[in-house]
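stage 2 :: seqdesign
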C-alpha cells in the first residue's frame, strides 16, 4: 500500500469525522487537498464561485444536520474570502472546519506573493486557529481542531502551506477516536434548588426562549404549564418554541410582535432559556432575572442576573420541573394571552386589506402565500434586512420546518449560499431562499452553482429595488435615504439565461400560480416578485433616543406590520382560556 501524504491523511480524517463534502474554490496551494478529495469516494468537492459562499454553505449544512461541515480556500485572497461566512457560522454555533491554505512554508514572513497570516486573521471567528507547519503535527492538530468545532459549537481554522500538504504523512501517527457529538450539561443541585425556590416564591413567571431551546420543546411546555407562565421568544427561538404552544405571547426585539415585551416586564421572575438576545433595551431592569445557558460566558452579559445557571435547557428543565410546586393561578398568563391576541388583531390588517389589487405587490402578501404553499418540512434561508421581517412574522413553524439566516452576524447575501448548503444535505427536501434584491446581487454569481449541480433550490426574490432596512434606519435617524436604490435587471430573464427556471411576477393575482409552478420544477428556479418598497411603515411612536441604525432597540417598541397565521394561533389560545 502506497504511503499517504499529508493531504490524503487530512481528507481521511475529515471523512472519519462525518464530513460529506468540502466547499471551496480551487487554487495552487490548495491543489494537493483537492486532488486527495478527487480520489476519495467518501467525500465530495463542491465548486462554488466565491469562497464566502463556501463558508455560508458549510455553516448552513452544519445547522441543518447538526454535524461537522467543512470549507476551504487557497492562500491569501482565497481564504480571506471565507471570513464573513465563518463569522456567521461561529456566531450561530455551527460546527465548521475551515482549511486556510497557505503560501510555501519557506516563504512565510518574507512578503511573498499573496502572503497573509491566517493564524491572525481568523482568530476572532474561531475557537481554534492553528497552522500545520510540519507533517509531524498531523493528525493530532486536525483532530484537535475538529473536537473544538464540535465540542464548543463553532469554527475551527487549520492553515496549511501547500508544500506541507504534499509531503509524506508521518509514520505511526496517532489517530484517536474522534468526538462527533456534544454531551448534555446538567447544572449542579445547588443551582437547581435556588431556581426552584425563586419560582415557588414568584407569583408571575415568564419564560423567554432562544435557539438553546432546540430539542427542549416538551420540557419548556411542561414547565410553562406547571407554573402558568407565558412563553415569549427571540427570533432564533421562533422555530423551536412557537409551534404547539398554548402559552405563546409572541416575539420580542426589533422585529417583535404581540405581548412578549409586556410579559417580560410585568412578571416577578423572568427566566431566559438558551438565549443570547442582543437587544438589552428590550429586557426589564426591575424584575428578578434567571438565565440558563450551556455557554457560561454568555451568562449575564445582557442583563443583571439574580441567578446564573450553567447547563443546557433540556437537562436543566428535566431536573427542575419535578421539584417546582404547581401553580393554579392563571390570571397573569390569561391576561398576557389576551393582550397578545389583541395586539395581533391591531396589525393583521396591514396585509389583508385589498392585497389582491395592490401594485407593486405587498411583500407581506408574498410571505403569507409562501407560508401557505411551502412544504411542511421546508428549509427557509432568509436574507438579512426586510426578509428577516417577513420571515419572522409570516413563516409558521411546526417542528419540522427550519428557518436559517444570519440572525446573529447580520450579514447581507447569506440566503442563497445557505440554501446551497441546506439543499446538498437532501435533494428531495424543499429549500426556499427568501432573498432580497440587494443580498441576491451581492453573491449572484453562485446562482450558477445551483445550475451547475442542478440543485432544486427555489429562490423567491423580494425585489423592491432598494435596501429597505437601511432606508428605515435612515428614516429613524432623521436622514433622507441615500445610496439605497438598486437599478435591477429582469432577474427571471437572468435565471433563464443561466439555464434555470425563471418567472417574473408583477401582479398579486399571478403570485400563487407562479410560486406553485416554480416549486413543481425539478431543478433550480427563481421567482422575481416586484414588491412595494414602501410596505413597511415606521413605528407608530418615535423616541428621541432613536438616533442611528439599530438604536431602534432603544425605543422598546415594535415595527408595525402584519403577522400572518400567528393571529389564528393567538385566537386559538384565547379560546382555551378558562372562563370564571
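stage 2 :: out
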Amino acid at each position: 500500500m502506497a504511503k499517504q501524504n499529508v493531504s490524503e491523511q487530512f481528507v481521511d480524517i475529515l471523512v472519519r469525522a462525518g464530513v460529506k463534502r468540502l466547499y471551496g474554490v480551487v487554487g495552487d496551494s490548495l491543489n494537493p487537498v483537492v486532488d486527495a478529495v478527487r480520489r476519495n469516494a467518501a467525500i465530495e468537492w463542491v465548486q462554488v464561485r466565491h469562497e464566502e459562499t463556501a463558508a455560508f454553505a458549510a455553516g448552513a449544512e452544519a445547522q441543518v444536520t447538526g454535524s461537522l461541515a467543512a470549507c476551504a480556500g487557497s492562500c491569501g485572497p482565497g481564504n480571506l474570502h471565507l471570513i464573513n461566512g465563518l463569522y456567521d457560522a461561529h456566531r450561530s454555533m455551527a460546527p465548521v472546519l475551515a482549511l486556510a491554505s497557505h503560501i510555501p512554508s519557506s516563504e512565510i514572513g518574507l512578503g511573498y506573493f499573496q502572503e497573509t497570516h491566517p493564524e491572525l486573521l481568523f482568530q476572532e471567528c474561531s475557537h481554534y486557529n492553528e497552522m500545520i507547519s510540519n507533517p509531524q503535527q498531523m493528525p493530532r492538530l486536525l483532530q484537535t481542531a475538529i473536537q473544538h468545532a464540535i465540542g464548543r459549537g463553532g469554527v475551527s481554522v487549520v492553515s496549511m502551506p501547500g508544500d506541507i500538504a504534499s509531503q509524506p504523512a508521518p509514520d505511526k501517527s496517532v489517530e484517536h477516536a474522534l468526538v462527533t457529538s456534544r454531551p448534555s450539561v446538567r447544572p449542579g443541585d445547588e443551582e437547581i434548588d435556588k431556581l426552584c425556590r425563586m419560582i415557588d416564591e414568584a407569583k408571575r413567571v415568564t419564560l423567554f426562549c432562544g435557539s438553546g431551546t432546540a430539542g427542549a420543546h416538551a420540557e419548556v411546555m411542561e414547565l410553562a404549564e406547571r407554573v402558568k407562565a407565558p412563553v415569549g421568544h427571540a427570533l432564533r427561538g421562533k422555530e423551536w418554541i412557537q409551534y404547539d404552544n398554548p402559552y405563546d405571547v409572541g416575539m420580542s426585539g426589533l422585529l417583535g410582535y404581540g405581548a412578549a415585551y409586556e410579559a417580560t416586564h410585568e412578571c416577578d421572575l423572568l427566566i431566559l432559556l438558551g438565549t443570547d438576545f442582543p437587544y438589552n433595551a428590550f429586557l426589564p431592569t426591575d424584575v428578578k432575572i434567571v438565565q440558563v445557558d450551556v455557554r457560561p460566558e454568555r451568562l449575564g452579559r445582557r442583563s443583571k442576573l439574580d441567578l446564573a445557571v450553567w447547563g443546557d435547557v433540556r437537562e436543566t428543565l428535566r431536573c427542575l420541573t419535578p421539584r417546582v410546586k404547581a401553580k393554579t393561578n392563571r390570571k397573569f398568563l390569561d391576561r398576557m394571552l389576551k393582550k397578545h391576541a389583541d395586539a395581533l388583531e391591531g396589525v393583521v390588517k396591514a396585509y389583508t386589506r385589498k392585497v389582491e389589487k395592490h401594485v407593486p405587490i405587498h411583500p407581506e402578501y408574498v410571505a403569507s402565500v409562501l407560508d401557505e404553499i411551502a412544504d411542511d418540512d421546508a428549509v427557509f434561508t432568509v436574507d438579512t434586512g426586510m426578509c428577516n421581517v417577513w420571515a419572522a412574522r409570516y413563516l409558521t413553524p411546526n417542528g419540522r420546518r427550519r428557518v436559517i439566516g444570519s440572525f446573529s452576524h447580520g450579514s447581507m447575501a447569506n440566503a442563497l449560499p445557505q440554501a446551497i448548503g441546506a439543499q446538498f444535505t437532501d435533494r428531495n427536501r424543499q429549500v426556499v431562499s427568501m432573498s432580497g434584491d440587494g443580498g441576491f446581487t451581492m453573491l449572484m454569481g453562485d446562482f450558477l452553482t445551483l445550475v451547475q449541480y442542478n440543485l432544486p433550490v427555489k429562490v423567491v426574490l423580494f425585489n423592491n429595488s432598494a435596501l429597505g432596512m437601511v432606508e428605515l434606519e435612515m428614516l429613524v435617524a432623521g436622514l433622507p435615504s441615500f445610496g439605497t436604490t438598486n437599478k435591477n435587471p429582469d432577474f427571471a430573464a437572468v435565471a433563464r439565461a443561466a439555464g434555470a427556471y425563471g418567472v417574473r411576477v408583477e401582479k398579486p393575482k399571478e403570485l400563487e400560480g407562479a410560486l406553485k409552478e416554480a416549486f413543481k420544477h425539478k431543478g433550480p428556479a427563481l421567482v422575481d416578485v416586484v414588491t412595494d418598497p414602501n410596505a413597511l411603515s415606521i413605528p407608530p411612536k418615535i423616541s428621541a433616543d432613536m438616533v442611528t441604525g439599530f438604536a431602534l432597540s432603544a425605543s422598546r417598541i415594535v415595527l408595525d406590520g402584519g403577522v400572518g397565521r400567528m393571529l389564528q394561533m393567538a385566537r386559538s389560545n384565547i379560546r382555551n382560556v378558562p372562563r370564571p
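stage 3 :: structure notes
- Residues 537-560 have pLDDT under 50 and may be disordered.
- The longest helix spans residues 331-347.
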